[in-house]
Give the backbone structure.
Amino acid sequence: MKFGRFSLASGRESPYYIDLRPLPSNPRLFSLAISEFEAMLSIRSGGTFGIASPELAGIALGAALALKIGKPFIYVRKQRKEHGTGGLVEGTINAGDRFMIVDDVLTTAGSILHVVKSLRDTGAFVDSASVLFDRMEGGRENLSAEGVMLSASTTIVEAINELNSRGLMTANQLESVLSYLRAAGASV
């Protein structure tokens, strides 16, 4: 977690940034993250399913989880390729297949909703998504409106409470994040 001024993919400016892209560079932490996703699977109602992720950050997480639990993996591009087959969904997918979406950080759910729509357009069924970190900026609600249940390993409120209790953030950083969350409509 970094503090400062950051532009998010959603277009918002934030006083903090969660950067989980380096996670695969640390095998111990990456393994813990994959184990977190595996634990979140326990709330999933049975049935056969595959793992899907948005490009780019979700690919390493989704592929590692799928390999660990022996499930098929696909990913959805942000935009259709303009070369080759012009694909948007990469991997084998058939109408009626079920997928759980895996990603790193949830803000407004824009990238996950893109995956949901893309998979549903192929006739696949999607009703759940799992993330490591929920920024609590409407993503959960946006997914719920589309019939997608979210599981999150942690939230921004849990993270700042932990950092604050350990003396790892200043009072100004704490107030800046809390003010930002209030303005975003989060319950803090």
